[in-house]
């Protein structure tokens, strides 16, 4: 497999295995390593700012209060970003506590940045490195059960994200990802030219997921153990690219590479880059 035919390397939350997830240090390091795509997650603050964060609350595993105190797991959802203005969100630290699942991660002070800030910094830093402009995979963290509790309804949520993509002028290099089919259905109407990725983590057949969605997305993003030769063949027959996540072990990377995905999402882009 040549570099030209090698799948695009998606840095998961920047490079979660190496730097604090979804932070500017992680995105800068991923760009310096040479990822093709920055994968990140977005939620909404009380003042309708688009914040880069996997959970719509402050995770007890990696975040500390503005006073520097740890967050108890039992109360983490009370630190609800959708109920906090961004000025307060920015005072929390989510970089000094190493994620317990990633022993190679190098802690450093870091806050949850705005999507606008990430896009501006990534564009600037890629130019500084003299590398081609990076692509973006932006996951909208939405679920029907959380409407009005942890995030706005799909159309409102999507409008806020699309506005930031438009302001940054990166629409031609951006794919929107979501598990929530409602968001993708609205996105198809509001932004028909934007590539969409349906995320899947259950064993429901792909045919059923696509039938529920009601159209063929540009990308099918499955949890990597779900990827089989049969599924790969089916998606290719449908003209749908596939990008499995989150592939971290070299042996899993090699198995995945054999099925020739369009991309691979990993917490360890350095390991995948070494295989290329």
Could you give the topology of this structure?
Layout: E1 8-12, H1 24-33, E2 37-44, E3 50-52, H2 86-89, H3 115-129, E4 135-140, H4 154-168, E5 174-178, H5 181-190, E6 196-200, H6 206-213, E7 219-222, H7 229-238, E8 241-242, H8 250-257, E9 263-266, H9 269-275
Helix pairs in contact: 1-3, 3-4, 4-5
Characterise the protein shown here.
- With 276 residues, the chain is of the alpha/beta class.
- It has one domain: TIM Barrel, CATH 3.20.20.
- The protein is 32% helix and 15% strand.
- The protein has nine helices and nine strands.
- Strands 1, 2, 3, 4, 5, 6, 7, 8 and 9 form a nine-stranded mixed sheet that branches.
- β1, α1 and β2 form a beta-alpha-beta unit.
List keywords for this structure.
276 residues; alpha/beta; TIM Barrel; 9-stranded mixed sheet
Helical proportion? 25-40%
Mean pLDDT: 97
CATH architectural type? Alpha-Beta Barrel
Order of helices and strands: EHEEHHEHEHEHEHEHEH
The level 1 CATH classification is: Alpha Beta
Low-pLDDT runs of 5+ residues are: none
What structural class is derived from the secondary structure elements? Answer: alpha/beta
* Largest sheet report: 9 strands, mixed
CATH overall fold name: TIM Barrel
Q: What is the C-alpha radius of gyration, as a whole number of Å?
A: 18 Å
Head-to-tail CA distance between termini? 8 Å
Beta strand %: 15-25%
> How many domains, in number, for the residues?
1
Please report the total strand number as a whole number: 9
CATH superfamily: Phosphatidylinositol (PI) phosphodiesterase
Q: Based on CA inertia axes, which overall geometry fits?
A: globular
User: How many H/I helical runs?
Assistant: 9
């Amino acid at each position: 497999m040549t570099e030209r035919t090698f799948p695009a390397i998606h840095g998961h939350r920047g490079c979660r295995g190496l730097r604090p997830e979804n932070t500017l240090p992680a995105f800068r390091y991923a760009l310096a390593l040479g990822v093709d795509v920055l994968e990140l997650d977005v939620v909404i603050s009380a003042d309708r700012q688009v914040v880069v964060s996997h959970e719509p609350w402050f995770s007890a595993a990696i975040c500390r209060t503005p006073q520097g105190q740890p967050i108890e797991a039992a109360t983490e959802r009370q630190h609800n970003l959708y109920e906090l203005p961004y000025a307060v969100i920015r005072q929390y630290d989510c970089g000094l506590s190493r994620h317990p699942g990633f022993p190679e991660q190098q802690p450093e002070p870091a806050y949850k940045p705005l999507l606008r800030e990430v896009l501006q910094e990534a564009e600037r830093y890629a130019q500084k490195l003299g590398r081609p402009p990076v692509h973006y995979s932006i996951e909208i963290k939405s679920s029907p059960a959380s409407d009005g509790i942890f995030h706005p309804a799909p159309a409102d949520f999507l409008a806020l994200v699309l506005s930031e993509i438009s302001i940054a002028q990166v629409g031609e290099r951006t794919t929107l990802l979501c598990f929530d089919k409602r968001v993708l259905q609205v996105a198809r109407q509001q932004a028909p030219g934007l590539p969409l990725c349906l995320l899947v983590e259950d064993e429901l057949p792909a045919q059923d997921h696509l039938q529920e969605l009601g159209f063929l997305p540009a990308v099918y993003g499955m949890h990597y153990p779900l990827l089989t030769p049969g599924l790969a063949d089916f998606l290719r027959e449908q003209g749908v690219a596939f990008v499995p996540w989150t592939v971290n072990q070299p042996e899993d990377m090699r198995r995945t590479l054999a099925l020739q995905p369009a991309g691979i999402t990993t917490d360890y882009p350095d390991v995948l880059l070494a295989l290329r």
